[in-house]
Specification:
Layout: H1 4-8, H2 12-22, H3 32-58, H4 70-95, E1 114-119, E2 124-130, H5 133-143, E3 151-161, E4 167-176, E5 183-187, E6 194-202, E7 208-213, H6 232-235, H7 238-244, H8 255-265, H9 273-276, H10 278-281, E8 295-301, E9 307-310, E10 313-315, E11 322-328, E12 333-341, E13 348-356
Antiparallel strand pairs: 1-2, 2-5, 3-4, 3-6, 6-7, 8-11, 9-10, 9-12, 12-13
Helix pairs in contact: 2-3
Length: about 375
């Protein structure tokens, strides 16, 4: 036990050496009383540390373990957990077929499900679909545990008759699709046969959850033209593609088919000419039928290697660079930017068309004649 009395029995020289060994700072300039106080302070500090060590030695082993902080507990696996979470979110987003409308800046979420099949030529069909968020949620609930391992697919079905009134659908091709896509081209090797497509979710045990089916189409046996990757190819001859896709067939439910064609071509779909003449050539004395409408044609020319858009929609160029597109002419003012861009994207030219239509329907006039 170090005390002040025991330290004072030593000479100043001895106390200085002791202070030096204890690591007392400034020992060389201290007097004897100062050295005693410094050494006493060091001795008390040593006793305090020794007492703490003794208390720790007497505690149970479990009490020596300190409770890890929240950050320390999560630190080792936070990066792994983040990657797992991101991968799950990515997989879930790929399954969300209702997200395709987000790619279209002008589009709003669809109000109902629809799937149409368009004949592009004898060997190529184009499927177009819109799926609502509610439908995806219903599929997720219906498939339960199968949902996490399922995948969205597009099925091409060939329809054959068994000789009776029933028809049989056989799978020709099955394509895995993902969110952000709402168009797909499918090849049919047997022109003249009848096809349709179905969209849904396929589980690993081959259980198929159907969302919706398309209209039935029959590609012509003779090639009617080359396909194209844009809807402008259809716009240039919309009635031909509408007819090939079954739009004028009396037994086809054509509401969704007609709606999509009108949206993409920006023009109303009418019945064939001989049908439109029906009410006009059979006068029944019920009144005078009279309708007037107007369209406009935007045409021009550009470098054959350039890309041209009208109001954001791509336009197909001819081999000489000329283009023409028939557009709706609604009863209002509209502004249409026409943009031409070079292939490498370094050059761009824009022409803005401002067009206004003002239609006035006059009051009908009826003249009475004396017999």
């Amino acid at each position: 036990m170090v005390t002040a009395a025991s330290l004072k029995t030593h000479t100043s020289k001895d106390l200085a050496q002791m202070a030096k060994k204890k690591g007392v700072s400034g020992w060389h300039s201290m007097k004897k009383d100062q050295l005693v106080k410094a050494l006493l302070k060091v001795a008390k500090q040593k006793e305090k540390e020794k007492s703490l060590l003794n208390r720790s030695a007497k505690r149970p082993a479990n009490s020596l373990r300190t409770k890890p902080t929240r950050s320390a507990k999560r630190a080792p696996d936070s990066a792994i957990a983040k990657k797992i979470r991101q991968e799950r979110e990515r997989t879930e987003n790929l399954k969300n077929l209702s997200a395709a409308h987000e790619l279209n800046k002008r589009g709003a979420p669809p109000e109902s499900d629809r799937l149409i099949l368009v004949v592009r030529d004898s060997y190529w069909l184009q499927a177009y679909w819109e799926i609502t968020r509610a439908t995806v949620q219903r599929a997720k609930a219906a498939m339960a545990g199968y949902w996490h391992t399922s995948k969205p697919v597009l099925r091409l079905l060939e329809i054959t008759s068994d000789g009776n009134t029933n028809s049989v659908e056989s799978i020709v091709e099955e394509v895995e699709i993902h969110s952000g896509v709402n168009n797909w081209y499918m090849k049919c090797d047997n022109p003249g046969k009848t096809y349709r497509v179905a969209v849904g979710y396929l589980a690993p045990d081959h259980k198929f959850h159907l969302i919706t089916k398309s209209n039935e189409v029959t590609p012509p046996t003779s090639n009617s033209g080359e396909g194209d990757d844009h809807w402008t190819d259809i716009t240039n001859d919309v009635e031909k593609y509408y007819a090939l896709s079954g739009g004028f067939e009396p037994n086809v439910v054509k509401g969704e088919l007609q709606a999509v064609f009108e949206e993409k071509s920006r023009q109303p779909m009418h019945a064939p000419a001989f049908e439109r003449l029906g009410s006009g050539i059979n006068g029944n004395g019920q009144g005078l039928s009279f309708q007037v409408d107007a369209h406009m044609i935007v045409h021009g020319s550009a470098d054959p290697n350039a890309s041209v858009t009208i109001a954001g929609e791509p336009v197909r160029l001819q081999n000489d660079g000329t283009f023409a597109l028939r557009l709706n002419l609604p009863d209002r003012r509209q502004v249409l930017p026409v943009v031409a861009s070079s292939r490498d994207g370094t050059q761009q030219r824009t022409t803005v068309l401002a067009v206004e239509r003002n239609t006035k329907v006059m009051e009908p006039v009826t003249k009475e004649f004396e017999h």
